[in-house]
Structures are given as structure tokens and as C-alpha cells.
## 1
Amino acid sequence: MKTSWRSASLVASAAAVLALTTACGQDSGTAGSSQNVGATAAPGDVGDIGAGGLGDQGAGAGQQSASPPAGAGEQPAGGGKLAVADNAELGELVTDGAGRTLYRFDEDTAKPPKSTCDGDCATAWPPVPADDAAAGEGIDPEQLGEVTRADGTKQLTIGGWPAYRYAKDAAAGEIKGQGVGGKWYALAPDGKKAKAGESADDRPGLSTVNDPELGEIVVDENGMTVYRFLKDEAWPEPVSACTDACLEKWPIVAPVEPDDTEGVVKKDLMTFTRPDGAEQQTVDCWPIYTFAGDKEPGDTNGQGVGGTWYAVSPDGKPVGAPKQD
């Protein structure tokens, strides 16, 4: 990366930090914006191979309609010239310079970018080095960035999300990694999860649906029900009581821009920094989560779990929760 970019990035990061300090009760909106990184990531090689989220089968192994580029039989060391391929199952997704599908990992974060796939995980899911990655047709250079891994190497990010290949994708166009372990998904050009039937830009980060039993509740960009934990705090600043093993069952909702919401009350729609450095979204300053036990959009299996977990109304209230003194 050029020095001028690094200076701009530091300024943008400082601005994001200031925005995050806005207290609840103020018209703050969601803090934290996507990286502004340019067309090519800084030099770096993939070093130690990394740990977590393995699986044997993806949700599908369909072929992308775009013709594989020459030399697709050999996986390049870097990302190469990235491109957008149109897949019959998933719609638009990002491929590397050899036509191989790029993926994101739900246990990573985008704001700030952080890679958690190390050890054996990175053997199955090789991180895409940021050294020679460049934006090809259909890729916005502003969406490309880099993150420093635990071993000091630089990994490509797209929309802030660290990018990976899947070792079992033997040829260009394969998507065997899609849905593996319920945590790995092909990357859309804006860093969101690739999803057929609608473009990423048409899917709000948070929106509402009418559940036949619970009424109007909040869902995330994938249509999954959003929940609140009654042991959390919102005032004067958000505090999450869900840590460690709890997060395996109740993954946090990543930051969402206020303009990327529909039907959700925007007042006190903000983010906060967790002790582990991850950014978590709130509604009415209350931290929000999804539930690992929900397998399909519309599932509400987390409702009432332990008498402390409840779906969220558009104004941030826990739907169906007992009244508290």
C-alpha cells in the first residue's frame, strides 16, 4: 500500500473511534464504517496455517456461469485480479484470479477486520494474501482492504471481511465451501454473503418481519431472527453479558449502517466495542444477537430460552419477555 493510503486509513479509523464513543440516549446512528482501501492490498504472504470451523460438505457444488480463466488449474499465491461470477444458486459472488470462489467466516469480524481462522482451520481455508489482489470488472476498489493476521502476514479483506479459499474447491467455479459448518459463505462483491434471488444492495442489514406468533420482530441481512439477552445492559453504555461459550450459541450481530435498515427505529441504533475488540450492533442501545439453533429464516427457536433470551421488536424491546421491576 502507498503511504498516502495508510494516512487516510488512520484518519478514517480515528473518526470511527470517535463515533463509537457516543453515549446512549443521543441521536448517534450506527458507528463504524467500511474500510476505504483502494484497488490493491499491501504485500504479504500467507504464513502459519490456522484453527477453527471445519466441515466436510458445503450446501452445494454448482458451477458459476462465467467461464474459468486460463490457468485455473493452479491456485495463485495471491488473490490476483478479482472478478464477479454469476452462480445459479447464489447469484453474484467474488472469485480470485484463477476463478476460485472466495469465502468469509462468521466467526471473523469486519468492523474492525479480524481473522480468527488459524492452525488447522487455515489449512482447510487458506487465507487469501493481500499482496497482489486487484479489483477487476464488477469489483469496487473501495471494498478491498487488508488485515494483519496473528502471524503478521497480510490477508485480503472485502467489505472488511477477511477472504479465504476452500481447499476442497478443486477447480474454478466450484462452491463446495458454501454453508460448511453453518459458518462459511461465498463472498458477494460488497463483502456480504452471496445470496441468489436478490442483490446484496437490496437486502437491509436489519429489517422487520411479521411473525405469526410474535408479531413484528427484527431480522438480520439473512432473514434470521435477532434476539436480546435480559442480562445485558444498555444505559449509560451497552454492556454484553454473553461471553466465551455463550457466543457459540448466540453470535453477535455485526455493525449495520443506519441507512441499511428498514422498519427499525433508528434512534440509538449504534454499535459498541466488546472486550475482545469486536464491534456489536445494538437496537435502542441493547446488544443484539442471532441464535445458532435457528437454521432457516423465520425460525424463532431462541425465543424464551432460559427465560432470558427474546426476539426484538422494532424499538428494541424484548418481545414476550416478562415485565421487569
## 2
Amino acid sequence: MKKVDIIGGGIAGLALAARLDPGAFDVTVYEQRPELPTVGTTLAMWPGAQNALAKIGILGPVRSRGSIIAGGALRSPQGEALLSMDGGGLVGISRPELLKLLNTAVPSSVTRLVGRVDRVQGGAWLTVGADGVNSVVRRSYWGERSAAKPTPFLAVRGVVPSTPEPGDVGEYWGRGEIFGLAPAVGGSNWYASYRSDLGPDKVEVPEALEITRRRYAGYPEAVKKVLAQASEETSLAQRIWTTPPLARYSRGNVVLIGDAAHAMTPNLGRGACEAIIDAVTLGDLLNEQPLDAALAAYGSKRVQRTQQLRIASALMGSVAMAQGMQPLRDGVLKRVGKRVSKASAQAGTSK
């Protein structure tokens, strides 16, 4: 039995533990939280992540407990639709529900140890850093230059019981701020992001909610209604952090997955998806190949792809959160939206 230590029991860590062959690996998952979180917003599962969830064996439950994301629109702060977006088969599921399902897929042979890991001991056949954006594993083996950096932006998000009207769904892009609204199982998922001096470490949710309500007071009624319903118990507030670029995700017998390898801004909605794909890709390779070959193949498959997404997400965030040139930006989006609508109409006529 080959000993594998997985530092971090979040989405990436649980997905890897669920995919590794229990007949070949002695797996230990280290997680600082004694229990799974009960509060969290909806995550969009793109097709690649759905394929990975199918390999783990939980795609059916994810679809049954989640919801189909039909689409929405990029909107102005006044609610005008600038560019319509098709959901493209995306499935939305809450983070707590996804963690529950991943947790049930982990074999009973996996050892669980609760407690914060501040220092990586080593000694295992393989040590996996699945410990998020502020990864201890990454800093220990890639050095302090790899430490996460806080962005100027705060993320405030939550769920409320009311369901949004289809004409209100989407992202509202303002001046240096965005607000997102989407249907979720049993209500609505919402998120806001803007420049803030709160944090960068612990952010008090009541204070962040009050600032958010004031900041978006001029937005449409749908946005104000959601923020009026938002509560401390069903909301989260945190600084957005990102990791610097990495040219490789493994060193010796240590490897990074998920946010520990490529934490990105949330503008593309790909962070959780890529963490799941990382875990399943690595698990499959370890199940089939010697360690050196598996880690080399993992790097070939995942480094360039995820670093490109990290850059693309940052660029999207720069456009969405721009503090100037809003009329030009919104005008371009509107023109693109008209061309997309015209192309779709012509495609429908030709069928």
C-alpha cells in the first residue's frame, strides 16, 4: 500500500480521495474543519467537471440535488440586458451539497484527521497540497514567493429564499462593481464584488452586508430585494485572493491541485470545476502509472490549461470591474449582444 497524504479536505481533496484506488493506496486526509460547512453559494458545474463527477460516481445525485442553469444576461446597473448568455448545459449545485456528495464517495478505508496543518512533515509516498489559496504545502515547497496575494476586491455572497424572475437573472456590471443573481434550489444565489478596505483576513459579515446594501441602493428592485433578505447566517464575505503563476505543479513527491495550484478570480466561475478535474485527472494517472510518470503527465494535462484560465479570469475581472470607460464597455457589449442575437435568429431560420 502506497501512503498518500492529502492536505485539505475541501472539494479537491475529497475528489482525489474518492478517485484513488483503495486497494493500492493508504490515504489520509487532513482537514482543519471538524464538520462540513453548512453555508455556501451555488457553483456552476461545466461539462468537463460533470464528466469528472461521473467518474467519481456522483453526477446523478449532483444533477438531482442541483438545478439546470438556463442562462441569463450581462446587464447594466439599471437592469438593461447588454448581452444574453446561454447556460449551455451547466448544472448549479450549492457548495455544501457538493461537499456532502463528495464526502459520501470517499471510501471508508480513508483515514480522516482533523486539525490545522501548519507544517508539512513529508515521509509519505506522495503528499498532495489540496489546501486552498493560502496553501501551506505550496509555500513549503515552492517558497514564499509562491504565497497568495490579496486582490483589491471583496466578495460578498449568499442565498435567499425568493426565486428571481427570468428577466432579472444575470450579472449587473457597474463602475468598479458587479452583482450576480441566479436561481438556485429553493431560492436565489447572489454575489457581489467591489473594491473594499475590509480584511484582508477576517471580514465581518454584518458589516460587509451593510456596505453592500448601501453600495447597490441604486440598482433595480430585484437586486435590492435580494439584499434586503440577505442574512448573516446565509451569507459569506471574504477578500478575493489569487496565486502567482506556477510553471509546474509537482516537485519530487509533492503535488498541488485545485486552488493550491491555480487560485483564480471568480469571474469565469471555473475554480471549483478545475479543482475537480485536477483531482480526477491525478487520481486516474496515479491508479495507472508509476509516480514519476503520473506526475509528469498530470503537469502536461493541467498546468497550461489552468494557468490560461487563471489569466482569462483575471482579464474578465478587469473588464467587469473597470472603474472608467463604462459607456464604451457597455456599448461594445450591446453591439456584441445584437450580433449574437442576429446570428442565433439566422441559424434558427436555416434549420
